Amino acid sequence: MVFLTRILLKKTSKDVSSVIRKRFGNFQDTLRIYVKGGSGGMGLPSYGGQGGNGGDVIVVASPKMTLRKVSLSHPSKRFSAGTGVNSRVRRLQGIRGADTVITVPVGVTVVTDDGQILADLNEANQRVVVAKGGQGGCFRTDWNGMRGERKSVKLDLKLIADVGFVGFPNAGKSTLLGALSRSEPKIADYPFTTVKPQIGVMHYSDRRQISLADLPGLIEGAHLNRGMGHRFLKHVERTKLLLFVVDINGFQLSDKWLYRSALDTVALLNSELELYKPELVSKPCVLAINKLDTEGADEKLGKVMEKFEEAEDYYSDLAEDIAPSVPVKFRDIFPISAKEGTGLEPLKSKIRVILDEEAERERQRDRQEQQKHAASEER
């Protein structure tokens, strides 16, 4: 397992979380809300009139919305739909209650308190009814309007991007995002510059576009929810390709933490993904070894590349508390300097090739499924 010591991790992870909160505030990627469908209107038994049904509470995905906006615009976190109108002599069929629509970001999963997933809203304008309105009063309900559904649900945002950057703080992920795309992320020479996910778009000459997500830096023990923990790792799940970004000079968060070499860092990142969710290490992965512009980088790069070229298990010489049980199989390794822009074009080209190959495999799987379905119907 990835650890320093129990005491050291407990203390330093508190320090890290404190720094994040004080310096940057909270990026909101989860929100619990209470929803209540409208009650049905009363029926009119003497004339057989039916009350209007209660309105529904509906969640709709929009690329222009954030959970922060939802939270600020509805401080109570309570959403109620309209009540159905009672049946009257002049209008025996009561009017249906008004629906309440909650607009959320694309990428939100709607989950009930008991863990049931109501919907994954991965495309704009996708919607789901989270609380149905009650039936209007009629002979089946003894002319009484029925109460609408009431429940708490969690809105859990997982970013959707083609490529997710994975790396420790100060690996140069934000600089790389800016160099590859038209994004201008905030960059500084201290850990945790990025505590809010940054999205950029990589453009190609034929107008192809690939989205990139620079996610907050991991620390050791992230799979146990230390530091940014699960708030980082869950965003990796919906990316199609993982780009490991590693500082050739290694990494040390502070004097309270052990120094980790570049190879150690790769192994630890691998382990954090594996321990959080084993299937993540089977995603297509590329390694970018960054900061080749720094003093002594060439010599360090030679030693690291020697390890990757020598053995199939390039973590074989590492300590057991660092090495993952399932090594990531990198599709390619790129020495780069995000700061100076060197080595980026081959990286950019390879990302496109991999994503195109994965898309073609997905199309083939879809065609095979369709053929199986058609064959089963013919039988």
Word description of this protein:
The chain has 2 domains: 30-157, Spo0b-associated Gtp-binding Protein, Chain: A (Distorted Sandwich); 159-361, P-loop containing nucleotide triphosphate hydrolases (Rossmann fold), CATH 3.40.50.300. Strand 13 (285-290), helix 6 and strand 14 (330-335) form a beta-alpha-beta unit. The chain is built from 7 helices and 14 strands. With 379 residues, it is of the alpha/beta class. Residues 1-25, 185-195 and 221-229 have low confidence and may be disordered. The chain is elongated, with a radius of gyration of 26 Å. Helices cover 28% and strands 21% of the residues.
State the main characteristics.
379 residues; alpha/beta; Rossmann fold; 2 domains; 6-stranded mixed β-sheet; 7 helices; disordered N terminus
